[in-house]
Amino acid sequence: MSGLKINKEKINSHTRPKDMPFNITKIGHVVLNVSDVERSTRFYTEVMGFKVSDVYTDAIAPGGMVFYRCNFDHHGIAVVGSMKGESPAIELNHIAFEVDTLDEVILARNHLKKQGVKIDFEGRRRAGAQIAVEFRDPDGHRLEIYWGLDQITDDDKIRPEDEWIWAHSLEEAIDNPVKGQNTKLKNPDLYEKLSPEEAKRRHDYSVANQRVKLGHDE
Fold first, then answer.
1. 179 and 157 in contact (C-beta within 8 Å)?
2. pLDDT of residue 7
3. Mean pLDDT for the chain?
4. Is the pLDDT of residue 3 over 80?
5. Would you place residue 137 in the very low, low, confident or very high pLDDT band (cuts 50, 70, 90)?
6. pTM for this structure?
7. Which of 140, 152, 168, 216 is close enough to 87 for a disulfide, judged by CB 3.0 to 4.6 Å?
8. Would you tell me which CATH number, out of the four given (3.20.20.70, 3.30.70.660, 3.50.50.60, 3.30.720.110), belongs to the domain 88-218?
9. What does the longest C-alpha to C-alpha distance in the chain come to?
10. Nearest-5° Cα angle at 51, 48 to 53
11. DSSP codes of every residue in 42-70
């Protein structure tokens, strides 16, 4: 690990200039390098639920390129078949995809497990307070499906750290909501009652995976 220490006050002092000549309204799309565009297409369509918008053959992009959509935008994610092996996941930490309900996060987790996709994390984040499930695509890129991300309004008030509640399973996140977050499920049957042993197993697994993801030397 680097010996660099984070200065929170200095980081928080940086802000958008008042005379900024443009305004970014959303993060538009992500393009990933992959090793097999057909394998990735099966994953992003059949596992993630995207639709194919367009395809580049090798004549346009060596290895091919595929554009996928999940709304009216032509593409929200795309892949280029230029990678020779699994992604080292160094520069890109993860990509997150939002769903409309907490029920869908549970349904996504269950669906991913049935598809044989390994879950790296499930529960609630600290900053942002979103409830999420995290996993990887066939090339090792980290992905997240989430609900309930804190919204920052015009008053710029952000949830204080003493309101953070880190949860290491979806059930733990539901049982221990943060202030202002309604974790009542539309379908209560989706809730899985965990034994103390299973809750501890998920907690330990989650913490270990998050330490690796955040760059701890392990």
1. no
2. 92
3. 89
4. no
5. very high
6. 0.81
7. 140
8. 3.30.720.110
9. 56
10. 140
11. HIIIIIT--EEEEEE-TTTSTT-EEEEES
Helix extents (H) in 101-195: 102-114, 170-175
Pick left, alpha or beta for residue 82 (phi over 0 → left; psi -120 to 50 → alpha; otherwise beta).
alpha
pLDDT digits (tens, 9 = 90+) for 56-101: 999 998 899 999 999 999 999 999 998 887 767 666 888 999 999 9
Q: Which residues have CB under 8 Å from 172's CB, separation 6+?
A: 123, 124, 194, 199, 202, 203
| Sequence letter at residue 41 | T
Give the C-alpha distances (Å, rounded to integers) separating 9 from 72, 159, 161, 217: 40, 17, 15, 26
Looking at residue 197, the DSSP 8-state letter turns out to be H
Fold of 25-85: 2,3-Dihydroxybiphenyl 1,2-Dioxygenase; domain 1 (3.10.180)
Instruction: Please compute the mean of the pLDDT values over residues 208-214 and round it to a whole number.
Output: 75
Where are the domain boundaries for CATH 3.30.720.110 in the chain?
Answer: 88-218
The token duo for 75 is: 């593409």
Give the whole-angstrom CA distance, residue 124 versus residue 178: 9
